[in-house]
Amino acid sequence: MDLFAxxxxxxxxxxxxxxxxxxxxGALVGxxxxxxxxxxxxxxxxxxxxxxxGLPPVGALIMLAGIYYGAQYGGSTTSILVxxxxxxxxxxxxxxxxxxxxxxxxxxxxxxxxIGSFFAGCVATxxxxxxxxxxxxxxxxxxPAEYFSLMVLGLIFAVVLAKGSVLKAIAMIVFGLLLxxxxxxxxxxxxxxxxxxxxxxxxxxxxxxxMGVFGFAEIIRNLDAGAEMNRDLVQQKITGxxxxxxxxIDSTPAILRGTVLGSILGILxxxxxxxxxxxxxxxxxxxxxxxxxxxRGAIEGVAAPESANNAAAxxxxxxxxxxxxxxxxxxxxxxxxxxxxxxVPGPQVMQKQPDLVWxxxxxxxxxxxxxIIINLPLVGIWVRLLRVPYRLMFPSIVIFCAIGIYSVNNAxxxxxxxxVFGLVGYWLIKHDFEPxxxxxGMVLGPLMEENLxxxxxxxxxxxxxxxxxxxSAVLLAIAAFLLILTVLPFLRAKRDEVFTESEx
Amino acid sequence: MADTMGHSAATxxxxxxxxxxxxxLALAPQIFEFIWSIGxxxxxxxxxxxxxxxxxxxxxxVAGAPVALIGxxxxxxxKASSDVLLALIYSYPLFAVAILTIFMTIRSAQDYVxxxxxxxxxxxxxxxxxxxxxxxxxxxxxxxxxRMFGGLxxxxxxxxALTGLLSSGPAMAHYSWRGPLFVMASIVFxxxxxxxLGVVVSAFVSFLIAAMGTHETRWIxxxxxxxxLTLGCALLFPYVLGLPMPMFPRFLAQ
Lengths: 504, 254
Prior knowledge:
The complex is a heterodimer.
Chain A: H1 2-14, H2 17-35, H3 41-48, H4 57-82, H5 91-102, H6 106-140, H7 144-161, H8 166-180, E1 183-184, E2 191-192, H9 206-224, H10 245-267, H11 273-287, H12 300-315, H13 317-323, H14 329-340, H15 348-352, H16 354-375, H17 379-385, H18 390-409, H19 412-430, H20 435-458, H21 465-468, H22 470-487, H23 489-500
Antiparallel strand pairs in A: 1-2
Helix pairs in contact in A: 1-16, 2-4, 2-16, 3-4, 3-9, 3-14, 3-18, 4-5, 4-6, 4-12, 4-14, 4-16, 5-6, 5-12, 6-10, 6-12, 6-13, 6-16, 7-8, 7-20, 7-22, 8-20, 9-18, 9-19, 9-20, 10-11, 10-12, 11-12, 18-19
Chain B: H1 2-41, H2 50-73, H3 82-102, H4 109-128, H5 144-166, H6 178-211, H7 219-240, H8 250-253
Helix pairs in contact in B: 1-2, 1-3, 1-4, 2-3, 3-4, 4-5, 6-7
């Protein structure tokens, strides 16, 4: 079996001391970020991007991946114990998880969250390994027209899965596409919308915009409410981590369903961990014989979303590794990390960089194992971290972000640009625009433009090429179908229901 | 009765202030260039002087643009200057929107203002890419894609603004000034200070500036934490991670 040979090779790479260390650092930082509210995964990965300059590419990507799935674990801890979701992905976990903690069952809730996450992580690791090769073969059959249509589909997915108004989500994507046009034109080299500012000639840095919109904007927004968040810590000691037999029986089907749903939503472009956890919670509530238990400490309400977000965090690597298309903002930053190290993401990565791909896949499984060890016995330490008041935390985050952006290019202008995008992000939040589609648009912009131009050049200006090539036509048809579905009133109501779940 | 009248008066004043805001937005690039040009008096940066900027934009807005508009209707395809184009592509449509705003009932200010500002951004992008080459036969020029997406964003912004007029929704959210101001000040200070003053000074001072973003700051602990953080950063970034950045102020290092 090719698969086992590949996985064995991956484990050999991942078990080298330096990669194990990187994996551990990633998992630790991820947990830390997940625990602390007010700093998200996207900002952290953006902040740590320059740090990976000095590392070998495999280690760098292993660390960054660890941060992403590690944050899913950490987020659940604070959701359950303190009712403060450290990450958007564990918002729904807080509903039932904190109720369980109040009833003195914090231990089982934490354990089930960790077990669910671990199980989902294992399944997702295998899934990446299994789906990787066939999808790569499919990708090789893709021409520019197909690539363009696929990206359109991805962006439409992002719209469908985004919160709130469809129109606003599309506008954010187009705004992102427009931002990606700043800088030199790929084909003619003409400077576009750069206003003769030399730092803009190379385009807006993706990390700069991400840090502004997700890092600085988030801080400014949090300061609105006053720095003192009320944190009613569950003070009693957490006793008895082991869940009872009944807990295990109740949560097993929920974990399975959450894993499947999360894996699917993770692969879809535009999806990701946030939507997966929301959807899994809603599904559990729909399927339950007695839905009124939800919100009062139902263990399925912890198991399903936690499995789903971890599965999705990992399967979202599939489109990145096989097609070279980042399905969400964190993956877009991974593209940045890969390009820093001279790796062009796409179907050829699997063949040309087997060390990187399989090493990363294997490290995910190891990382999940480490996370269980980090999270369960050490839970007390993580909770103690929450006592650090926000008034001391936010200036530190500002400084770390500033140094981080500066060191990407050693350019002070980048720091100011990130600040400006912080204000833009603050404005977007105030007007109820989602920043995530903006980032996705910005990442896919250059790829889309290039493939659009190439497709039209090959077809000698014939726009019907997107409809006459069968694969491309199918992809566009799915996109159109999805968009129509979302706009239909019946389904919109359903979609809104999923998102309002967290608010009540 | 008095109640309803008071209510309508309140909406009216709000509409005028929104319209005035749009007028300001319509002139924002010109005002920005003017403020920027003041620097040239002191020899900072290159560009036109403030007087030239003022005259050129004023004539473009008052005379140049209308002439170009009439000329284009008459079939005259003379190349307009960039200032005239800015007035034509960006400022005039926004002035038109501002005038229309006065007569509208805004049901959701959040959506309406959000849509119009996005539209303004798109119009600005259209202007910024107006000097780029368009389609050459069937091949894309440098300006084709920006124009395509700019046009699309204008339409989407208008659509969002329209939903703000047609369906009721939330009003404008409350903005606070303290957090954004001090966080921004801290970021700008860091950007300006990192090259001449080095990591140690700029990180510490930026930390203190950012800490002013909330009134809950207690200075003693802030100074202690700031000092520790600065020390940590000074060790972590240049030494452990090997990123090239100056540690101490330039005049001390020499």
